[in-house]
Amino acid sequence: MSLSRTPFRLSAPRLLSALVVAGAVAAPAAQAKQLLCVWDVAGKTGDVYAAATDFVVAMQKAGADMELKSYVDERVAVEDYRAGQCDGVIATAFRTRQFNSLAGSLDSIGSTTVVKGGKVDINASYEVVRKVVQVFASPQANKLMVEGNHEIGGIFPLGAAYPIVRDRTINTVEELSGKKIAAFDYDKAQSVMIQRIGAQPVSVDVTNIGPKFNNGFVDMVTLPAVAFKPFELYKGIGTKGGIGRFPILIPTVQVVLNKSKFPEGFGEKSRQYWLSQFDRALNIVQTAEKGIPTAMWDDIPAEAVPKYVLMFRESRIEIAKQGIYNKQGLNIIKRARCSVNPSDAECATKTEIE
Question: What mean pLDDT comes out for the span 170-195?
Fold first, then answer.
C-alpha cells in the first residue's frame, strides 16, 4: 500500500490527546528555585544571614523561590556566583564592586562621612548612605543597577568602619607614616590611600585580618563595630590601643543577582525591600557599638579632622582617575552629602569629579 495515497487521520480522542501532549511540551517550564549564596562572618548565626532569611520569605510574593547557602569565606561565595553555581550572592561591596562599579562606589573612602563644627556627625553620615540607597532603589535608577547580566538587588549598611590601632598615640595623619596598615587584597583603593600617607599596606582578607592585628603583624585595621567580637579585636587593642571615632568609610553588604534567573522587575522590588530594612541595619550597628567598652573609644584631635577630610577627598579623586572608583557614583554621593550638609565649602561645586 502506498503511503502517499493513504490519508493520515486521527480520531477525535487521539487528536485531543495529541494536542494535550503538544501543549505540555510547548508550555514554559516552571521557574526553578534560585540559589542565593550568603556571606556572613558568623555563618548561619549572623545578622546578615538572618536578614537574608527574612528576605527570602518576603520576596515569595514577588515570584521568587529562593534558598540560601551559607559561606564564612567571602571569596568562595563570590567565586561560586561568578562560576554560575549561585543565582545571586550577598557579600561586601569591596567584593561585589566588580559586578556594578556605580553601586560599589558607596563604599569609597570618606564619601559618606559628614563633618560639622570640626566633629563627625555620625547620624548625618548614615543619612547620606540612606539617601544614596534611596536613589539606587528608585525606578529611575533601574538601568544603573544593571551591568551585563548582573543586577544589584539591595544594599545593607554594615556600619561605620573606624581606624582601630594597637597604640592609641597613632591618631593623626602624620603618626600613620611608616606604620603597617591592613588592606584587603581585593580592594586596590585601600592600598592607594595607605601609600598616599606614607604607610605600608599589608595584604589581608576577612579570614586573617583579626589574627594579623591581634598578633601585631599590622598596626592598624579599619573595620566596623560588628567585627569587634567575631574577630576578637579586643586582644589586639589591649590596654594601649583604641578605636578612633572617625569613620574612614561606611561599608555595605550588597545583593547581586543574575538577572536572567529572576522574574521580570524583581530587581527593583528587591532593592525596595532592602531599603525598608535600613533601620534594622542601623539597630544592629548601634547594638554592636554599645557592646564595645567605652574606654576603648578615642576621639581624633580636632586639629587633625580637616586633614583627614582633605586626605579622603584627594584620595577618592585620585582613585577614581585610576578607574577604581566610579565617577558617576562619586557625584551621586556628593549630591547626597550636600543635601545633608549644604553649608560645607565643597558644596560650592556640583560635582566631585568630571
Answer: 90
pLDDT of residue 31: 56
Distances, alpha carbon 113 to alpha carbons 47, 333, 336, in Å:
24, 10, 11
Q: Residue 9 has which C-alpha cell?
A: 487521520
CA distance 145 to 107: 15
What is the rounded radius of gyration, in angstroms, for the C-alpha atoms of the chain?
25
Could you tell me the pTM of the whole model? 0.88
| CB contact at 8 A, 234 and 30 | no
- Provide CB contacts within 8 A for 9, sequence distance 6+: none
- In whole angstroms, give the CA distance from residue 19 to residue 295: 77
Determine the Cα–Cα distance for residues 38 and 119; give it in Å rounded to an integer. 36
Contact between 97 and 256 (Cβ < 8 Å): no
**β-strand pairing of 66-71 with 34-39:** parallel
Residues 6 or more apart from 285 whose CB is under 8 A from it?
157, 158, 159, 160, 224, 225, 226
Using DSSP, state whether 296 is helix, strand or coil.
helix
